[in-house]
Amino acid sequence: MKQYLKLDEWSIIEESFDPALHEISESIFSIGNGYMGQRANFEERYSGPSLQGSYMAGVYYPDKTRVGWWKNGYPEYFAKVLNSTNWIGIDVLINGTPLDLAQCEVKDFVRQLNMKEGYLSRRFVAVMEGGKEVQIEAVRFVSMKRQEIGAIRYAVTPLNFSGSIRFVPYLDGDVQNKDSNYDEKFWLEVEKAAAADLSYLTLKTKKLDFHVTSVMAFDVFKNGQKLEFVPSLSEREKFVSAEAVFDIEQGETLTLYKYVANVTSRNHGLGQLVDAGKKALLEAHAAGFDTLLREQAEAWAEKWKGSDIIIEGDASAQQGIRFNIFQLNQTYTGEDDRLNIGPKGFTGEKYGGSTYWDTEAYCVPFYLSTADSTIARNLLIYRYKHLEKAKENARKLGFTKGALYPMVTMNGEECHNEWEITFEEIHRNGAIAYAIYNYVNYTGDKSYLSQYGLEVLAEISRFWEERVNFSNLKGKYVILGVTGPNEYENNVNNNWYTNRIAVWTLEYTLEVLDYLKANENARYLELVDKLKLTDEETAKWRHIIDNMYYPVDEERGVFLQQDGFLDKEIVPVKDLPPENLPLNQNWSWDRILRSCYIKQADVLQGLYFLGDRYDLETKKRNFDFYEPLTVHESSLSPCLHAIIACELGYQEKAYEMYLRTARLDLDNYNNDTEDGCHTTSMAGTWMSVIQGFAGLRVRNDELVLKPFIPSHWKSFSFNVMFRGATLNVNVTEESIIVTNETDVPAAIRIYDNSYTVGAHGEIRAQRATVTV
Ligand code: BGC
């Protein structure tokens, strides 16, 4: 862990250049707009260690599975979002010498991610051969308003010499994924043209036939005056460039504006890509850099209006939470229901940019509260569209009915290939069902159930029906051979969380069926017919609900993570010599599996999801038992513990957990930020403030708040959208003020009192202390 970034409420700032930290910064300073994303690579050549990364959402490659020992049922491929054409590149030659920060002295370096307005900037002085100093100022963004557009302003000022500057803006498609299983390159060239006004390059993937066209144009200005020139052009395989050389006097500034449109066959017909790219580019070019940058600031102002959290009295916490919100907003914007949220967003290649249960369990709440409900709805529809594939997946594993959603996917097909996860981490099905409940409970949009929700719920229920078996010994249903959320144990029997979420899914499915039967009968009959749902099936679901086995320890009053958990030697993490941690880097896998140590919330995940069904005493006993055994080696872990700790009034614990998540990437807490940021767990950080510190829940159609405030925060405030209203919640040590910023009244409860906040109305309440 190294803290090298300057504290600032709205920006991430790096004030000197350290090549050893460069790949970490490349992740942290990434930019994206939901449609594409770009690591903070330099525009100019850089020969030091770097992970070049430009990613187009949804453009992926089925990379042939690599595995030591093949098991029936393994997927043939691992899908990965592809590193695509490097569109930011600009070679810069100063008096014929390439500018390369690995080859020269770098002074006054400042890299800044302006989160308020959504752009990345960099300023430095490079000391070249013979002490020639040149100042560079670069600004870059990918447009939120015009999603296919990226723009760069790159200004060069020789400080102590006169000479020549050669600019070579290019598009380079000869790129490779670092995580390619067989060191293969995935792109083929389709067509290209370098021309004075516009150059373009079209590539296609070797499989699946995704096409991506990048079109670029550039202008050069000297001291603010546009220059006329005829560039020299060059082409080679998967590469086009245009270049021009300019004489420049000491103190003058030469500014290059590079505009690029990246269009894909996901959104345009194959024959139309070049035209579509040119059209988008010409429009952006005509608007000009300053207009595009202004549009960007406006688009981000809108985003912040919905999602900002303001923390007074703690600049570090403020920067941390804004960074998380910024990354979430630039990863998923929700217009395209074919897209989802990879655990690393667009900031790196680990996890392949694929979809995990992280989305339903951690990200859905963020988008539900901070954006129009269609955005979270699209995340649900994504899974609805994959229902047939989830059914196929279940058949492939030998089930005669039902749907098993994949653990890792891009298009609905499973692409993970570790048996203990692919075949056993089936609790993911529960999270997908739970997200439907969460969405309907939050938004009140019950139409989702008849349109899409019931089909998914019924097929997941059918899976659970077949996945349980009746144990004659126990006289109960059991679920054998699973991996719970705690991946530090595999192939366990009766993981409490899995059994519980399975039964909850059955209960909820039956509840939804009853609701539709009573309220949308014609559609209900249509769906029963479509699903061929029988009375025997629903009767069996009821039987499972009533007769499921749950491991418990009566003496301690806790749910047992799985059968036999208490056979383990139970030693709290705090008693382990610190050099053992993190366990996944210091212990053999065998030792981890046999130990009592828990990677992430497991029983507690269930108590969080089903929080309204368990009293505080039960939550307390389980938290007190499991938290001391938890090593939080998944970034998804601390946030959930922070939320439950808040509920229990464990303020110090809650804050300790919050700190582990809030600045995870900014402070490189897990020593792995160079692989990319932990984007999905950032939603968990947001949850730990909103659901943890503010205690926000939706119960019985009311928005419930039970806030507490960390001791050194003066106040915190945030906006949440709830059923058409936008509410601003402000919490101080003394009071809670909820202001309705819209015309739509909202039902809220603060601690135990219910209110209606009328149009543009305000409610004030005293802060109270929660004790268990
Ligand atoms: C966690 C999983 C998670 C995955 C991707 C793993 O370390 O254990 O729960 O889905 O990371 O974030």
From TrEMBL:
Keyword terms: Hydrolase
Residues at which substrate binds: W357, D358, K599, Q600
InterPro entries, per database record: 6-hairpin_glycosidase_sf, 6hp_glycosidase-like_sf, Gal_mutarotase_sf_dom, GH65_N, Glyco_hydro_65_C, Glyco_hydro_65_M, Glyco_hydro_65_N, Malt_Pase/Glycosyl_Hdrlase
GO annotation (BP), single: carbohydrate metabolic process
Gene3D superfamilies: 1.50.10.10, Glycoside hydrolase, family 65, N-terminal domain, Maltose phosphorylase, domain 3
Domain of life: Bacteria
The UniProt record lists the keyword Hydrolase: yes
Pfam family, any one: Glyco_hydro_65N
Domain Glycoside hydrolase family 65 central catalytic: 322-687
Positions in coiled-coil regions: none
GO MF annotations, alphabetized: carbohydrate binding; glycosyltransferase activity; hydrolase activity, hydrolyzing O-glycosyl compounds
Residue positions of the active site: E487
Residues of the Glycoside hydrolase family 65 C-terminal domain: 696-757
Domain Glycoside hydrolase family 65 N-terminal: 14-266
Family from the record: Belongs to the glycosyl hydrolase 65 family.
Protein name: Glycoside hydrolase family 65 protein
Native organism: Paenibacillus faecis
